[in-house]
Specification:
Elements lengths: L4 E5 L3 H8 L5 E5 L9 H14 L5 E5 L8 H8 L6 E4 L5 H18 L7 E5 L20 E5 L2 H8 L2
Parallel strand pairs: 1-2, 2-3, 3-4, 4-5, 5-6
Helix pairs in contact: 2-3
């Protein structure tokens, strides 16, 4: 059972080592907000290394960049060969985003020789005001959907709070 998830900046092996020693059940290796744009490529390599090292029975998740940007596919290409437990999808605006990521995961799992459907999705579904109107649409979108999460800081910024 997963009771606690701890975010770890994807560009810091030192912070990963500290997080791996924590009591958290799962670690979310972050390639999105905690990594400066000019450090994304280096962070992908670091996260791949973290996944390959493992963490004593903890689930290892990777938060990729939003699908709408240029970084999400590069993130997936870097980390999927190391078979993360799951992918955290930021700024998910609805069912279409889940399905798009699920299709990408199908391809990356096939290329890596990973069991089909093995990679789970944790969608952050409330980071934009528009996303609130589609919350009803996630049911049965994909068997990969492990959970839904709230994104209060980005939502507040989007509504000007």
């Amino acid at each position: 059972m997963t009771r606690s998830l701890l975010f770890v900046p994807g560009d810091s092996g030192r912070k990963f080592d500290h997080a791996a020693a924590s009591a958290a059940d799962a670690l979310i290796l972050d390639l999105e907000d905690s990594v400066a744009p000019d450090q994304k490529a280096a962070a992908r390599k670091e996260v791949r290394s973290m996944l390959e090292r493992g963490s004593a029975g903890k689930q290892l998740w990777v938060r990729i960049n939003a699908l709408e940007g240029d970084d999400a596919l590069a993130d997936l290409a870097a980390v999927m060969p190391a078979a993360p437990y799951g992918i955290v999808l930021p700024k998910c605006a609805g069912r279409a985003g889940l399905l798009q990521l699920s299709h990408y995961l199908d391809a990356f799992e096939a290329a890596a020789g990973t069991a089909p459907g093995a990679t789970r999705i944790l969608a952050i579904v409330t980071e934009t005001a528009q996303s609130l109107f589609g919350l009803h649409d996630y049911r049965d979108a994909t068997p990969r959907l492990w959970g839904l999460s709230w994104g209060a800081e980005d939502l507040a910024a989007d509504v000007g709070a």
